[in-house]
Design goal:
- The protein has three helices and 24 strands.
- The chain is mainly β.
- The protein folds into three domains: 107 residues, no CATH class; 388 residues, Porin, CATH 2.40.160; 38 residues, no CATH class.
- Strand 8 and strand 9 form a beta hairpin.
- The chain starts with 5 loop residues before the first helix and ends with a strand.
């Protein structure tokens, strides 16, 4: 008995009682048998009660010990989870409180958070979008090319912890970690954990406040307006794109930000975001605190990032005041949206403080300054200035025999507040507009079309290459270096138009197939790119030496599939 396990002691005690009873019956004379049997039965009844009490105590001790072990070690057996952790709304067990002093498995004091409630909901989700593209940049040495692109694919984990059981009715703590997934391309830090919207926040009846990184309210306000988002015909080829290149500065995801999202009141919702610049340099030419390998307002390893070979960076340096191609300080973004039945209306505004554009005038480092001159002898000055954008628009859904027809349109103002005398080199100020229409055809099919227009700018700070490597025209940019086959950009129109047409087949709410075509016609002084946001790569009018060709007509056709889970 001394070495016997606890769970074996109870049956042994019962067997011993039975043996004693049997022995008493055999050794007792017939005359005293009745009295002996009565005594044995009384003893057995008492013993059974004692065994029941002992069994309850042992079970209680074992239950308390198991509860403490569960709190000390995570559950690894999938069958122990409540719900399927791979599906939407899977429930993860809340952390157990520290073991309490107990008697027979019953706590002496329950504690302030008892009883324990399993109320943290964890959702795993994702979006996959891959396409096969055929495109032609209309550049003399490029021709038609094929490509496979991963377009805005991502993976995320979202958690919600309900605070109602603890006295905060209607409140929840929320968190999300979302990352780009380069399904077709070799991943870089662009696909690191948390590269997309990621945050920690608190939701309640008054709305939500969150901190982390997020698409700005300005960007979200018209996200539903573009039927070709993340494709070669994405409207960011022009809309929100101040420089006419491969990034849209006012269709952005802000790092180190805090923002508020209101509830929906009778169809109206308001949101506001603030992102502190937290820059080492007064002219925002260095990395922000916490971002030690990426300039603010720049695409990862792309334009403005100060990554070697990307343009705009100081030769041979990573950091060291080389964030001179769009890096900004404090940023503010606000938007109001209204949706009532078939009608939608939006208004949004965004402000970037002290945007550094010295990468265009060569004056980012006075010790190494190489001023840029144009053929007319003028020296380029772009400097540091505030930039802002505003837009208003709306949409309406019309019912017709073919199915719903959804129409959207909005007008946009982009401005750079340059100092007097800098206007001839300001390519960041212009107007633009976007119009789209989507006709649903039955349950599965839809057909869409869109038009984006970029107005002219006051000027431009550089030279562009002609679509002819043997042209005799020269452009002095920068310094004394004469580059044949170039022309002064601000002497020509920077107007551009993008036209798109496509169809989509929805298998269901989670999977679809699409076919999209886009035509981008640049004015002679313009250099906008297709796929400037969301698409796996940008299609720009550049030759094999990365010289920018002005006035190109870029064409692309793309077919692909999407899958959401």
């Amino acid at each position: 008995m001394g070495t016997m396990s606890k769970d074996r002691r109870i049956p042994v005690i019962c067997m011993a009682g039975a043996v004693i009873a049997a022995a008493g019956v055999i050794s007792t004379p017939r005359a005293a048998l009745a009295q002996s049997l009565d005594a044995v039965l009384q003893r057995l009844d008492k013993l059974e009660k004692e065994n029941a009490a002992l069994r309850a105590r042992v079970n209680g001790l074992e239950a308390g010990k198991g509860h403490a072990a569960a709190a000390a070690a995570p559950v690894t057996d999938p069958s122990k989870f409540k719900g399927n952790p791979v599906q939407h709304g899977a429930v993860a067990t809340s952390p157990a409180p520290a073991p309490t002093v107990s008697v027979g498995g019953m706590p002496v004091k329950a504690g302030p958070i008892a009883p324990l409630v399993d109320n943290t909901t964890v959702t795993i989700y994702g979006h996959a979008d891959l396409s096969l593209d055929a495109f032609n940049p209309s550049v003399f040495d490029q021709g038609t090319k094929l490509g496979i692109a991963s377009n805005g694919s991502y993976f995320g984990i979202r958690a919600r912890h309900n605070l109602a059981p603890y006295g905060w009715e209607g409140y929840s703590v929320v968190a999300q970690f979302e990352s780009q997934v380069d399904v077709a391309a070799a991943p870089t830090e662009r696909a690191a954990l948390g590269t997309r919207d990621s945050y920690l926040g608190l939701e309640g009846p008054w709305g939500a406040i969150k901190a982390g990184k997020s698409d700005t309210p300005y960007k979200k306000a018209t996200a539903a307006f573009d039927p070709f988002a993340n494709t070669v015909a994405d409207y960011n080829s022009i809309m929100g794109n101040t420089g006419g290149d491969n990034r849209a500065e006012f269709d952005w995801r802000m790092n180190h930000a805090i923002w508020y999202e209101s509830p929906i009141w009778n169809g109206f919702q308001f949101s506001a975001l603030f992102s502190p610049g937290q820059n080492y340099a007064t002219d925002n030419s260095d990395y922000s605190y916490g971002d030690y390998f990426q300039c603010n307002g720049a695409s990862t390893r792309g334009s403005g990032s100060n990554f070697p070979g990307t343009g705009g960076s100081l030769p041979g340096n990573i950091g060291g005041n080389g964030c001179t191609d769009g890096s900004f300080g404090n940023a503010f973004s606000v938007a109001g949206t209204y949706k009532n039945g078939p009608f939608t209306a939006i208004a949004a505004y965004e402000y970037h403080q002290s945007v550094n554009r010295h990468g265009d005038d060569g004056l980012e480092n006075q010790a190494l300054a190489v001023p840029v001159f144009l053929p007319d002898g003028s020296q380029v000055f772009t400097g540091v200035a505030d930039e802002w954008a505003a837009k208003v628009g709306g949409g309406y859904r019309f019912d017709n025999p073919l199915g719903p027809l959804q129409v959207y349109a909005y007008y946009e103002w982009l401005r750079r507040e340059v100092a007097p005398g800098f206007e001839p080199f300001n390519e960041r100020s212009r107007d633009g507009w976007f119009v789209s229409a989507t006709q649903s055809l039955g349950t599965h099919w839809s057909v869409s079309a869109s038009w984006a227009h970029a107005g002219d700018t006051p000027g431009a700070p550089t030279c562009l290459s002609l679509n002819n490597p043997n042209a005799p025209i020269g452009c002095v940019s920068p310094g004394p270096i004469v580059q044949s086959g170039q022309f002064q950009q601000n002497a020509f129109s920077e107007v551009a138009d993008m036209y798109a047409l496509g169809t989509k087949y929805r298998f269901n709410n989670w999977a679809s197939w699409y076919l999209v075509g886009a035509w981008l016609q640049n004015g002679m002084g313009a250099h906008y790119c297709l796929g400037a946001s969301g698409h796996g790569y940008q299609i720009c009018s550049r030759d094999q030496f990365n010289d920018t060709i002005g006035g190109a007509a870029i064409k692309a056709v793309s077919t692909g599939m999407t899958f959401d889970f």
